[in-house]
Amino acid sequence: MFALQPELKVFSGSANPELARRICEVIGVPLGAATLSSFPDGETYVRFEENIRGRDVFIVQPTSPPTNEHLMELLIMVDAARRASADRITAVIPFFGYARQDRKDKPRVPITAKLVANLLTAAGVSRVLTMDLHAQQVQGFFDIPVDHLYSLPVLIRYVREKLKRKTVVVSPDVGGLKMASAYAQALGASLAIVAKQRKSATETEALYLIGEVQDCDVFLVDDLTETAGTLTSAASLLKKNGALDIYAGVAHTVLAGVAVERLQKSEIKELVTTNSTPVRTVEGFTITVLCVSELLGEGIKRIHKDESVSSLFKIDGGAQ
Questions:
Q1: What separation in angstroms does the CA of 40 have from each of 13, 44, 77, 180, 211?
Q2: Do 117 and 64 fall into the same domain?
Q3: Fewest CB atoms less than 10 Å from the CB: which of 22, 49, 58, 246?
Q4: Are residues 130 and 26 in the same domain?
Q5: Residue 77: CATH number of its domain
Q6: What would you report as the CA-atom Rg of the chain, rounded to the nearest whole angstrom?
């Protein structure tokens, strides 16, 4: 049983302190003071510089690259908060990096998403607040409450001003159909799907298009881009099928080295994403980064006050 309305405290790991500061501005509380450093051998050191006994603690830390370092830092921060007698500890993970490893698709491979869920619970996390999981079933890997938000309302407000002509929302693979359908409903647009074949971890091939994009603007939607292979190959196929301007909307943009050249040479006019992780710039290519601090801040406020968060889960056409 938690204390009635304990004081709210927000702390940040080193993965995305700017987002944490913006969340605190939305909530109207100062960002908590914590020391984060490394010993000479690379071990992580954490110390909270203020009293958190009996407090409702939120730790903002996406598991973006370097993924293992940021994950370990989060676990150590949670352990430090638990040993400092925090009342409740909520891990705010805007980008949950291991969500793609959610099943055994080959023999003798791990289900790392489940392992990470176990680690967070064992460290002392009471609740998880995350956004746009790659696989929604990852929520079921936790034995603690998980609040799963969507960036759709944030992206929709921006792209509605861009897409004035007839528009088709396209999923670059079959797995993203539900997300693409939600965007199509919100935009009042038609829907299409690109079927792809993955050749390797860094290379995909768009095989064929299901739907019609001739003389239409296209909004390609995906939850994550890392090598940009899926997006750029889909954009190339769409252009061959008569698409006009092609925009891409991605919740999490974690660009590896190969992605830069692919985007520069691609048929994509603009990539719209969020600041769930720090986004690198690409010379000669337009990337628009939208802030999700209001979305996450509202989620934190409602969790702290034990209010319903369900209205923030909506991914239908009613998104404002």
A1: 19, 10, 19, 47, 56
A2: yes
A3: 49
A4: yes
A5: 3.40.50.2020
A6: 20
Q: Which residue intervals of 54-188 are DSSP H helices? A: 67-83, 112-123, 152-162, 177-187
Cα–Cα distance measured from residue 224 to residue 217, given in angstroms and rounded to the nearest whole number: 21
Residue with tokens 């092609």, as numbered in its chain: 246
State the residue range of the domain holding 280: 152-290
Are the beta carbons of 295 and 153 closer than 8 angstroms?
yes
Of the listed 114, 196, 199, 305, which one is catalytic? 196
- The answer to whether residue 301 is catalytic is no
Task: Summarize pLDDT for 74-124 with one digit per residue, the tens.
Answer: 999 999 999 999 999 999 999 999 998 999 988 999 999 999 999 999 999
Do 194 and 263 have their domain in common?
yes
pLDDT of residue 201: 58
- Nearest 5°: phi and psi at 45? -120, 135
Quick: pLDDT tens for 179-190. Answer: 999 999 999 999
Domain count, the chain: 2
Residue 72 exposed, middle or buried by CB count within 10 Å (0-12, 13-18, 19+):
middle
| Residue 121 sits in the same domain as residue 40 | yes
Residue 86 shares a structural domain with residue 162: no
Domain co-membership, 61 together with 134? yes
